[in-house]
Amino acid sequence: MTKLTVNRLVHALDNLASHVDLDQFAPASFSEDHREGVAAFLGRRKPRFEGALNANQTGGMAMMKLKPNCECCDRDLPPESAEARICSFECTFCADCAATVFGGVCPNCSGNFVSRPIRPPAMLAKYPASVERHLREQPCVA
Q1: Radius of gyration in angstroms for the set of CA atoms belonging to the chain, rounded to a whole number
Q2: pTM for the whole structure
């Protein structure tokens, strides 16, 4: 019985991880940097990235911006905040606005919200969070 339960749990987590991976991969696959990476690979040359995820800026690692505020109410959301919610395009809102104002659906892309990951302190020191604040032009009304 225990083995069956564990096997079912492992299978369920594997399915969940596959869906999360696809959710993250799809938006990135339409970027100019993605196209450049594929072209460079096929052409057997070093890629020349020009987007926000420039390899020179991140050591070749893709980094989230970790925006500092809710785009709706302008509440501070420091990098360690458990209250930050993001969509697959990294639109950033506080948990309250994401749930009450937008009903769990991003107003910019219609995607769902998830908790924003917390970057470990050592990596945050090496790759700091953005200080550029973003606010929606449209009013945010609950």
Answers
A1: 18
A2: 0.59
